[in-house]
Amino acid sequence: MNSVERLIVVVLFEGVDLLDVTGPPEVFALARREAEEATGYDVVLAAETRDPVTTGAGVRVLPDATFEELAARGIDTLIVPGAVEVDERGRVHALTDPAVVRRVGELAARTRRVTSVCVGAHVLAAAGLLDGRRATTHWSTARQLAEEHPAVEVDADPIFIREGDVWTGAGISSCLDLSLALVADDLGEAVALRVARQLVMYLKRPSGQSQFSVPLEQVASTRRVEDLRHHIMRHIAEPLTVADLAAHLHVSDRQLTRIFKTELGTTPHAYVESARVEVARHRLESTDVTLERVASECGFGTVDTLVRAFRRRLDTTPTEYRRRFRTGAGLHGDPPPPHRLSPKA
Which residues are paired to 111 by β-bridges? Predict the structure, then answer.
């Protein structure tokens, strides 16, 4: 049995983004269920007092402990969410409370691993924890982070970045990707992938993947269409013509086209191409296999077809995408230098 204790502290404060608070604990709870051995995870929501905290969504959350009550405990992972305000012109601004910044600095000093989710990176930066480091945040506040903290190397593209014992995540649902990466770091890829399946995530996305993703996540209202989506992903290297998909659902070609338009807002051909591009992205990010093999494994057939699909969907080429977003895992040679968001850009 794994007897190590891993105290995970999620920082709470008024106006905090709700998903930033609730997403990571759900991942760690599923990891406890999916791991074959005890994970040792103890997730605690901590605030200045035990009074309910009102999140930005208006939902009140009850802290498990105060910061002072945790003073005597060693922290394995500190998770710092963020908060935003929207001005009269609809522009998003990250907020930082000096009292919260001070507390985060104190907690980080006795923490093995410090993380931020979404605009929580602004809190870490204000505490001086990102100086000289590459970091990411939600794309809508990346320029603000670069302007206010020039000592931070802001990269607005990846969904999360690890710099030693400091991790920063991008926005909204990528808090799940970051949390899965933490689980993988602790318990291995197999456990993280099992958790991802429980979360109904198609892939455990690597850190280098862009925040801007192929839109495969339209909600299907029927089990039949959801089964078809999974069928496409399982058989992505096969032809997957309209006739093939219609036969799988036992409907006519015309009825299949109507189903795609009604349920997914697109055509069968466009959806399959999006799915192929998504799988190809993962291959390019996490392996060094040739473009010919990527094209074959993802059902494009030829490299030319692969290139045309990438230009249509992502306005780039597979080679350029790999150069920019590959993670280094399973690759030969050093990864490319990161793109830096200049405050003057």
Answer: 75
